[in-house]
Amino acid sequence: MPIYRAHVLVCNGTGCASNHAGAVTGKIKSELERQHLADEVLIVPTGCHGMCEMGPVVVVYPEGTFYCRVTEEDVPKLVEEHLLKGRPLESLMYKGKETVAVPHYRDIPFYGKQNRIALQNCGYINPENIEEYISRDGYVGLARALGGMTPQQVIDEVKKSGLRGRGGGGFPTGTKWSFCASSPGPEKYVICNADEGDPGAFMDRSILEGDPHAVIEGMTIGAYAMGANEGYVYCRAEYPLAIIRLRQAIEKAEEYGLLGENIFNSGFGFNLHIKEGAGAFVCGEETALMASIEGQRGMPRPRPPFPAVSGLWAKPSNINNVETWANVPQILSRGGDWYAAMGTEKSRGTKVFALTGKVRHTGLVEVPMGIRLREIIYDIGGGILNDKEFKAVQIGGPSGGCLTQEHLDTPITYESLPPLGAIMGSGGLVVMDEENCMVDIARFFLEFTQRESCGKCTPCREGTKQMLLLLEKICSGKGEMKDIDLLEELGNMVKNMSLCGLGQTAPNPVLTTLRYFRHEYEAHIREQRCPAGACQALLSFTIKQDACKKCGLCAKNCPVHCIPGSRTEGYVIDAEKCIKCGTCFTKCPFNAVLKG
Amino acid sequence: MNLSAEEMRKKVLEILAPWRDRRGGLIPVLQALQGLMGYVAEPAVRIVSEELKIPMSEIYGVATFYAQFHLTPRGRHVIRVCRGTACHVRGSLKILDAVKEQTGCAENATTEDLQFSLEPVACLGACGLAPVMLVDDQTFGRLTPDGVSAILAQFV
Ligand SMILES: Cc1cc2nc3c(=O)[nH]c(=O)nc-3n(C[C@H](O)[C@H](O)[C@H](O)COP(=O)(O)O)c2cc1C
Ligand code: FES
Known about the structure:
The complex is a heterodimer. Chain A is 37% helix and 14% strand. Chain A is α/β, with parallel strands linked by helices. The termini of chain A are far apart. Helices cover 44% and strands 13% of the residues of chain B. In chain B, strands 2-3-1-4-5 form a five-stranded mixed beta sheet, covered by helices on one side. In chain B, α1 (5-16) runs antiparallel to α2 (26-37) and α1 (5-16) crosses α3. The structure holds flavin mononucleotide and FE2/S2 (inorganic) cluster. Residues 165-169, 171, 193, 195-197, 282, 284-286, 319-321, 324, 426, 500-502 of chain A line the site of flavin mononucleotide (FMN).
């Protein structure tokens, strides 16, 4: 292999790619050629670094200099200064609140508290190059498992690690494997759940795009432990890049003898297939997912029988989430004790969170279990966007709940969240500020779950619909106080009586906002007022006359011409005709339009 | 794509070939059909039904269950505006409104000239850049309602 004196890592994850990382890569290539550096400097397209907000991200090694928001125009200077003259370019480095340039990856607060295990390779290696994966101890775990461990020993190692399912439920992975392993029969399946339905979470996507071999290796180890020779990755069709990377990785692994017949001469063989989802949230539920692989409508069925007994094609099957599988290779190569040393007593190891919403640094973060929300939002995420007031954080997606200020110091574990009405879920963390209305958020989630309900069971199909209608009524200012009680009653009914996890958890966003933000519901009903100013039907706009400079921009931009007046007399909004679009509010340069 | 009945039959049979004696083929077959014609067209469904011995009702049961399948022709450009949580809290509804206004296209519909189809989607997995939309296979992030028209102008 040729030796290069420097490596330029360019993020090619979906986030950076949509910020023209492809063009930046092309420009770096042509600039390196122009400066005759092409033989000395290697460009490595990598997976996601996690800090998507700051993309496109470029990291130059050996120094580990982290450049962000790199544009095509920046490239000539970057190549000339850093790669030709050896002077890191301060103007492109990350700057925190203090506006001092931070040259190194590890010194950036966003990465400081992270402990990247499942994401260890994301952003470091070229996901299309199996050798890079191998050079970072890839396939060592599989070699250990197949080279001397019995299936039972592999399961024991996973049990020892304390790993729990990262897809939402948090079921102990080793225990789940032992169920499937003890089911009799020569034909068994292992499945990877890459349906990633939680809108607002994208860790599974990043792992598949940035480190597909970790998932393949994890599944092969699991297949050996449970005695399966066939596996499926069920990936949502909205993730085309993940599917491409995974397909390439499978081909490479086959070529290297790491998939297929007689792996490592152990006599054990394993084949892996990809199934593309077709757009249905409920297919993330394990029994629905298997129905979908079989080519049917993806509707859940009652359990038992559990998949470990009768799953895909009625054979014993085991399904785990992408992140769960991605942890397995290192548990085998470094040992279950090493993994168990991280996190808390009952929630071991690390968890990847997708930090999004009104936070300064959105992106993917991997932190030890037991970390506090405050550390994630303020230390890693850099606090609230535009220095606004923190209001709530939604954890666990449509199945989860909204937590408030008072929960910022609660350690996040599988056990700590349910008593508060939330769940860990897949790890989506959507931060909200004073401008987000909690009734609107509850309505938003119900709209989602109601649409995605498969319709098989009545409580979920009809209950979510009625709850949504009530929430819409409240958001439009037509609510009555008794609607709150009705929402609570319906919520508990849907929760207790639905067939699958979708319905059983769908009311959570409503019930938690009712619990912690009841006053907002009451303001909508009693005062016909949306305290956050988000529910359009309840808004009113007025012009504060002493702040108005009579510039006339509001009147000029009003789409329904309802701001009569003149540059000498000033302007008044005609509330009768106003459609509450908010254009005047955004256009006024003097903040003289009041929203309330 | 406009295919003659003859050509279509040939292509559909090609798509079916690997699934004649394998299980679980219906969804991949429908995906391939849609890839070929842009939507799941009835004449093609008829061929699938006859050849794979699956009742039409079952095929339509599956095709209507999944959001991905379309039973009518779609626009030359498909605009997918993300309505996921991360995008919602950063104002994706305003983006959706702007797109509707610019294209004159309703949600889950196609313009009469078949230029655009507009489909709100749950999450595009680029939540870090919210609000996000996808036009065909190009992702656009950190959108503002004012910025929408410049993006759409690239597609007319
Ligand atoms: C409505 C619904 C949607 C789900 N969506 C997903 C999903 O997108 N990804 C996932 O890994 N698990 C999802 N799950 C959880 C799975 O049913 C299953 O518990 C999980 O894949 C098991 O893997 P784990 O033990 O590794 O977490 C969902 C469950 C329900 C009820
Ligand atoms: S919520 Fe919009 S991309 Fe995820």
